[in-house]
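Open question from group meeting: does this chain pack into something compact, or does most of it stay loose? Before anyone orders reagents, we agreed to write out a predicted structure and look at it together. Recording both the input and the output here so the notebook holds the full record.
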Amino acid sequence: MNRRKFIGLSTAAGLSTIIPQSGYSFFADDFPVVRIPKSERNFTSPAIEKIIEEVSKNIRNKEMAWLFNNCFPNTLDTTVDFEMINGKPDTFVITGDIDAMWLRDSSAQVWPYLTLCKEDKNLQLLIKGVINRQMHFIIKDPYANAFYKDLNKVSEWKETDITEMKPGVHERKWEIDSLCYPIRLSYGYWKETGDSSVFDKEWQHAMSLVLKTFKEQQRKNGKGPYSFQRQTAWATDGVMLAGYGYPVKPNGLICSTFRPSDDATIFAYLIPSNFFALVSLKQLMEITKEIGNHDLADEAGALGLEVGLALSKYSEAPYANSKIYAYEVNGYGSFNLMDDANVPSLLSLPYLGAVPVDDPTYQRTRKYILSEDNPFFFKGTVGEGIGSPHTLLNMIWPIGITMRALTSTDDNEIRKCLSMLQKSHAGTGFMHESFNENDASNFTRKWFAWANTLFGELVLKTYREKPYLLNT
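Structure tokens returned:
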């Protein structure tokens, strides 16, 4: 289903499901039970339930505890479909209100559960199944960003999209991060569990396609095999100049036709995504060295060096008598200063391991991002934060607020972010894609699992590291 269809949901769309009815039970302090009943949950993890109980018991802010209870398990409760196929775990993960699996979203949705895998082998198996399913999709089409479980299903975009659409592909928007996130999940899974069996022949084949695709999109030898056009009134869904976008001057960076928002780039060298690619290539090199695939390791290492060198030369742009990271560049000297709430973003670079949080250029960039000089930073009576062209103007993304807190070292800033998130759910008990800066009940996407799980990750991190911030 098209994400666009969920823009402008009314208050009733979110609140109708939580008005207390006869027989309703309550979580604490008369907060209604909005989490799906146990009998209807797709997957239950004892380790997840244990940590929910612990956090809920030990923090004094009961509304925050209620939100954590609802949001943290939302991916497992409502979006996963786990089974064994030919002796291998397989997990299909929808985003929520869209019945398709994004390589990006599925990785981010299960990421916060990794630290609990050692306590729950079934949870470990489920995450391994996500990786296996992702590899299958990458092999099917490394340029696609979202897929159906039914590999014969024809996309709703089939009649409007001018690109090579295969059955089983929901959407074919080329985004660098679509191939980075599965590497991040694979690497994180390996580091947490020590299980290298996931790096089988299929995984290695998929990774060879990742490298091939990255190299094609450096566009050293022409525009490459990918192009995309859509018959639509939404300008950010279309790609200029016969589907290849505005020209770039090859310099070692990788072109991304679309942003992680699924909106078209203005200049194809998307800087946060190239930083993410650099991290992913280093992780891929480490993994493939470990499993003895030295050809793949050497290829990943060489490409990583090239991307890293290009970032050192082309990632910065002038701003306020200094330099900050640009959001997009084209290699000809043009640049776009902004940030988008979708991850990878410039704000998220330390979260992804791309730059140290105290990196001077990052800190200058962060100051810019969280100011009104950023055209997609919005501030109103409900809160302040980064939005996205994807949801038009004046709409703040909880993911952006959460990422601000996850990359902050300032207790007051973290507390401020937690407070804004607590105010943003509009009585639903869940996070949303975006909300109006002056009216939290004007929100988009009432069922958006990534936003829910990422919020849970923030609360859990805060509980483990700075629990006093959750007591007010």
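Observations to bring back to the group:
The CA atoms of residues 229 and 242 lie 7 Å apart.
Residues 294-314 form the longest helix (21 residues).
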